[in-house]
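hiii so um. not sure if this is the right channel but i have a protein structure encoded as C-alpha cells and i wanna go backwards to a sequence. like what aa goes where. can anyone help
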C-alpha cells in the first residue's frame, strides 16, 4: 500500500473522530505519521498541528451552524491556552525525540482510560473564570508540546468546569483546539523544513472530509459507544508506542 493511500485512510479516521467526538482524532494523527508515513516524532507533532488546525476549523463551522458552540465560554477557555501553547510549542523542539514519544504515549493512554468512562452533562451553572482559565492553560500546554488538539481533555473539562451539555462541549472544544493549534504552529514556525507536504496535504484533505462525516455520525450513533470504541484503539496505540520506545 502506497504512502499516499495510507495518508488518505489515516486522515479520514482522524477527521471522523474529530467531527464525531470533538477531539481524540489528533491523538491518532501523530502515531499514524510516525509509523505509517515515516515522520520523526518532532516532524509528526508539527505536521499534526497543521492537520488538526485545518480539520478542527472545518468541523467548528459545521457545529456552529447548528448552534452547538458556546462562543463566550469557549473564547475564555481558548484565550487562556494561547501563551502556554506557544511556549510549549517552542520548548518541544529542544526535547529529545524519545522523551517526546514517551510523553505522547503516556498522555494517549491516560486519555483512553478517561474516555472509557461515560460523561454525564451537568445542569447549567455560573461559569467560574478561574477554573476555566486554569483548565484552558493546561490544555494549551499539552497542545503545544505534543502536537495534539487536546479535545480528549477539552470535552470533559468543558462539561465539568463550564457545565456545558455534551453536544455543546463537543462543538466548543473545536474552537479551543483550533486556537491552540494555531498558537503552537506560530511557535514552531521555521522548524518544519523536513515536512513532507505531498503527504500532509492529502492527509489534511481526507481529515476535513472525514470531519463532515463524523458530524453526521454523531447525530445517529450514541456518543458513549463511539467513544469506547475509539478509546480501545487509542489505548492499543499508546501501548504499542511505549513498547517500541522501550525495546
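sure thing!! here u go:
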Amino acid at each position: 500500500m502506497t504512502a499516499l493511500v495510507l495518508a488518505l485512510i489515516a486522515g479520514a479516521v482522524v477527521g471522523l473522530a474529530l467531527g464525531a467526538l470533538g477531539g481524540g482524532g489528533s491523538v491518532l494523527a501523530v502515531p499514524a505519521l510516525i509509523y505509517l508515513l515515516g515522520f520523526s516524532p518532532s516532524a509528526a507533532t508539527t505536521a499534526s498541528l497543521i492537520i488538526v488546525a485545518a480539520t478542527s476549523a472545518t468541523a467548528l463551522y459545521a457545529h456552529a451552524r447548528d448552534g452547538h458552540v458556546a462562543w463566550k465560554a469557549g473564547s475564555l477557555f481558548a484565550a487562556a491556552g494561547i501563551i502556554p501553547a506557544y511556549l510549549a510549542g517552542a520548548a518541544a523542539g529542544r526535547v529529545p525525540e524519545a522523551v517526546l514519544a514517551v510523553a505522547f504515549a503516556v498522555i494517549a493512554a491516560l486519555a483512553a482510560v478517561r474516555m472509557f468512562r461515560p460523561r454525564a452533562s451537568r445542569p447549567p451553572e455560573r461559569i467560574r473564570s478561574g477554573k476555566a482559565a486554569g483548565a484552558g492553560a493546561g490544555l494549551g500546554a499539552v497542545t503545544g508540546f505534543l502536537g495534539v488538539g487536546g479535545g480528549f481533555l477539552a470535552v470533559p473539562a468543558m462539561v465539568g468546569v463550564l457545565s456545558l451539555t455534551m453536544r455543546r462541549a463537543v462543538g466548543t472544544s473545536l474552537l479551543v483546539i483550533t486556537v491552540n493549534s494555531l498558537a503552537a504552529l506560530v511557535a514552531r514556525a521555521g522548524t518544519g523544513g523536513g515536512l513532507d507536504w505531498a503527504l500532509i496535504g492529502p492527509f489534511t484533505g481526507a481529515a476535513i472530509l472525514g470531519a463532515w462525516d463524523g458530524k453526521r455520525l454523531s447525530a445517529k450513533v450514541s456518543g458513549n459507544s463511539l467513544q469506547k470504541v475509539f478509546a480501545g484503539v487509542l489505548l492499543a496505540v499508546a501501548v504499542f508506542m511505549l513498547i517500541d520506545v522501550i525495546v
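oh and The two ends are 27 Å apart (CA to CA).
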